[in-house]
Amino acid sequence: MFWRQLTAFILMLVLFCGVLPAQAADYAPPLSFSNAELKGRDFSGQTLRAAEFSNANMELANFANANLQGAVFSASVMTGANLHGADLSNAMVDQVNLTKADLSDAVLTEALLLRAIFEDVNIANADFSDAILDRAQIKELCAKASGVNSKTGVETRYSLGCR
Asked: According to the lineage, what is the superkingdom (predicted)?
């Protein structure tokens, strides 16, 4: 009985010391830029999955071709930001001021966009498939929607449900 318990203990110790650190090394907590001053900052081409940018000032920031899947931008300022080709799938972009932002060729599938401001925004070739928007936002975006997203092959007007 003693040897069985000792063997089980040694096996658990080996597993704990040998396997868990390798798994832990593969995990990195998401980056947090909440409440940060990021005006004009260059994040282009970076992988920022699940990063948090809540209540941040990202006026004129460059996120061109960045991987922002699942990122949180709630209540931030992104006026004039460059999000060309960015992947914002499953992102929270609620209550964000996107005035004069470039969302051309961006992927916004399943993104939460309620109460976001889209004044003078460029959405050519953007994919909004299954994004959460209110009717007023959809009407506003449909008035300027055009093109086909280069990554998903989805037409912008179709992704918004424009008539």
From this structure: Bacteria
